[in-house]
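Risk register update: the risk that structure generation would not scale has been downgraded. Supporting records follow, first protein first.
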Amino acid sequence: MREETKQSQKTHDFGALDWQAILNALSECARTVRGVRIAKRLPLLDDVELIRSTYSAVMELTALEQEGERIPVGKIGAINAMVEAASRGRVLAKEDLVQVRDTSNGIIDIHEWMTARADD
């Protein structure tokens, strides 16, 4: 199949799937602001091996949640703007510092959660 025909078929498939509607629905399941943003920009995978490995990772997390596990993402906040401001020398307000601290602790919680399950 010629390359331009492959690209044309890929574009047609992408439109027929209404990929953006799928991404919007997926973003409604996200638990963090960053998760929503990432979910809305996920690429449509077209490599079979990449699709299989991604599916496997999703199924692993789904199985953990079905067993009662929850990834501890609740403390993760959107701190990008605060970190950027601090990196430019701006003094952060107390509330901003608390949010940065909570997010940092949340990242540690996720790391510990993942490390504890790495051997399972």
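Supporting record for the second protein:
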Amino acid sequence: MTKALNRYYKTLRKTLICSHASKTRFIKESDAFVADFLIDKPDATVEELSALLGDPVVLSETFMETLDPAEIQHSKRMRSICKILVVVLPVAIIIFLGILIYYITKAQSEIELTQEIVTYLY
């Protein structure tokens, strides 16, 4: 049952678009609700827990309706920035390393080695 409950909470965390503090508070409240239910009915099945809590997507949408819209907007913006960084940063690093390697090899090919013999006459 723990595995199914962990999957439920994972889905719930993914669908919650809010600050970390709000998400943690809501997950703790849900966890306390489940713990209370399991005290009353220790042999409860996953289906009974799912029926009690409802669909995780619907539950997260219901919770987000109680939040400040500015908090949700901020969280959406931060998610978008993180997604962009995950794509752009590796590409920028690869381009930078490619240019660096190109200039290093070009600089090495332009180096001309000469040998001079110096003789001193007294």
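The two ends are 97 Å apart (CA to CA). On this basis the risk owner (M.S.) recommends closing the item.
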